[in-house]
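Ticket #249: bound-state structure for adenosine-5'-triphosphate.
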Amino acid sequence: MHALELKNLRKSFGQTEIIRGLDLAVNAGERIAIIGPNGAGKSTLFNLISGRFAPTGGQVLLNGKRIDGRKPFEINRLGLSRSFQITNIFPKLSVFENLRCAVLWSLGYRYTFLRFLVNLHDANSRVETLMKMIHLERKREVLGMNLTYAEQRALEMGVTIAGGADVVLLDEPTAGMSRSETLRFVELIRDVTAGKTLLMVEHDMGVVFGLADKIAVIVRGEVLAFDTPEAVRANKEVQQAYLGHLEIA
Ligand SMILES: Nc1ncnc2c1ncn2[C@@H]1O[C@H](COP(=O)(O)OP(=O)(O)OP(=O)(O)O)[C@@H](O)[C@H]1O
Ligand SMILES: [Mg+2]
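RESOLUTION: The complex was predicted; output attached.
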């Protein structure tokens, strides 16, 4: 059984088919980088997997169970969590409060959490652990909007894994970061997703080749190649369709 399996997945917007019969099977614990030209359908794919969009056709299976057509929060409860291409945290809440919201939400508190105050101790200790994992324990009282961009992305990473999901989707996690921030963030991703299944859309080939066990090349809504980094780099079709435009170390 695969951690995540996509079978003949399709998505159209109006007349235009963006995801065109896409198949992909990811083993538990694998780190997958998804690459492809702008507009290839990578973010759309994440929206289909995470339940933001319902597919036009095909299936999504999480740990062998169909999740296509389910609501995002249901899919999240089943163990899949995602980050967004743009930073997505509460700007007027502190680091601590952002993480605590995410933890409480994942525990099912949502809008009625005052009824469950007894368990807040557990939630708070989980928040402390998360803050250490993302190296923001010294910024606990700082508001989201006052963090540096890299710190905001780290916080978002913490929010993404707060519920303990075992399948994590990251959409361009290092976009907009400096070289040194990117290198540190790669280590952060490696640490916080240890033992989890990771799918990551990424344009930075240094990050892709440094982190990924396998690379899925998506072109025009289809999987052009799905293989080890070495095999993908050597693939002539991939070079022609995509990698030729990029510098690969
Ligand atoms: N909600 C939507 N309604 C209509 N068209 C959409 C919608 N979302 C995405 N598209 C279209 O689907 C195509 C794929 O977009 P998508 O954002 O998935 O690409 P991407 O591979 O993530 O690109 P990038 O690398 O630029 O992030 C684009 O042509 C886009 O305009
Ligand atoms: Mg995108």
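RESOLUTION NOTES: The first helix runs from residue 42 to 49.
TICKET STATUS: resolved
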